[in-house]
Automatic annotation (TrEMBL):
GO terms for molecular function: methyltransferase activity. InterPro entries: EgtD, EgtD_Methyltrsf_superfamily, MeTrfase_dom, MeTrfase_EgtD-like, SAM-dependent_MTases_sf. It comes from the Bacteria. Keywords: Methyltransferase, Transferase. The keyword Methyltransferase applies. NCBIfam families: egtD_ergothio. GO terms for biological process: methylation. SUPFAM superfamilies: S-adenosyl-L-methionine-dependent methyltransferases. This is Dimethylhistidine N-methyltransferase. The lineage of its organism: Bacteria, Pseudomonadati, Pseudomonadota, Alphaproteobacteria, Rhodothalassiales.
Length: 323
């Protein structure tokens, strides 16, 4: 644990590089090839993701912010005072700020993220925007077991989890239930959870959102190869792959792939990986839900759905769940 001048405390529980190497080699020697979407979020990937959120085709961010702005007073009333906010995946300050601003006497915030560098930057922004607020940053893999440190002043009256952006959509339904089960345990007794979930809609809208005209999502996906070159000494030529986004109707998810443009061989951590022209690396899933399937995941994890809000076009949903 490290503490800086603002009182921000940083806990590093991120998995070591050796885990990354074996996970990447497992994914690239499997058939079909696939990698964990968490690999997309190195420092540069996190930066590009924020640019995705500003693209006109990428409706989730601004839609969710609109919903949160309207719902924040009711969420704050349900939560009451002396609440520690627990943000799963440190995102832009704007969303969590809507909750903190609405809360009466927040006890602190704990920000969790897989990417340590991005997390520290986000946590520092929080500490500066809310002087006096107890800020804890925890670099950790969501799937692993760990505990959230209480604010320095003492245990909060309750914890309010916050998992916005439909990041839950990265998980297949079974894994989403596992994640939510772990989140419910971390939140503890009397915990509440605010969960953002993107809704099913016309595949053309979805495919455009994941393949914007400016090419920002393509750059986000291709940055993974640059990252593997840097962190694992791989020799991918990103120009010999292309970004592909498609809606899988049967599994209700947008899939991102990196498609090889030629037959080629790539060196990754001392191993040769062969690609056929047209073969892909599956890099991310974004599952889309209905209100009912989202509430069913929450219920399977032991949460009780309390309230749900949507926008006027039913594009996105925000759920309040009791742990
Ligand atoms: C951060 C996982 C919610 O799935 O919409 C955006 C990631 N990938 N565009 C999403 C993403 C491509 C995003 N999540």
């Amino acid at each position: 644990q490290k503490t800086d001048a603002t009182g921000l405390r940083f806990f590093d529980m991120a998995p070591p590089v050796e885990d990354m190497k074996s996970a990447v080699l497992d994914g690239l020697t499997a058939t079909p090839k696939g990698l964990s979407p968490s690999l997309l979020y190195d420092q540069e990937g996190s930066r590009i993701f924020e640019a995705i959120c500003d693209q006109p085709e990428y409706y989730p961010t601004r839609t969710e912010i609109g919903i949160l702005r309207a719902a924040a007073p009711e969420i704050a009333a349900a939560a009451g005072p002396d609440v520690q906010v627990v943000e799963f995946g440190a995102g832009a300050l704007e969303k969590v700020g809507l909750l903190i601003d609405a809360l009466a006497r927040p006890a602190g915030i704990a920000a969790l993220d897989i990417s340590g560098d991005h997390l520290l930057a986000a946590a520092r922004d929080l500490a500066h925007a809310y002087p006096g607020l107890d800020v804890v940053a925890i670099a950790a893999d969501y799937h692993k077991d760990f505990d959230i440190p209480a604010p320095v002043a003492g245990p909060p009256r309750r914890r309010l989890g916050f998992f916005p952006g439909s990041t839950i959509g990265n998980f297949a339904p079974d894994a989403a239930v596992d994640f939510l089960t772990n989140a419910r345990r971390l939140l503890g007794r009397d915990g509440l959870m605010v969960l953002g979930v993107d809704l099913r809609k016309d595949p053309r809208i979805l495919e455009a959102a994941y393949d914007d005209a400016a090419g920002v999502t393509a750059a986000f996906n291709l940055n993974l190869l640059t990252r593997l070159n840097r962190d694992l000494g791989a020799d991918f030529e990103p120009g010999r792959f292309r970004h592909k986004a498609l809606y899988n109707q049967d599994l209700h998810r947008v899939e991102m792939h990196l498609e090889s443009l030629a037959d080629q061989r790539v060196q990754v951590a001392g191993q040769t990986i062969a690609f056929a022209a047209g073969e892909t690396i599956h890099t991310e899933n974004s599952h889309k839900h209905t209100i009912e399937t989202a509430q069913a995941l929450a219920a399977d994890a032991g949460f009780t759905p309390q309230r749900v809000w949507t926008d006027d076009q039913d594009r996105f949903s925000v759920h309040l769940l009791a742990a």
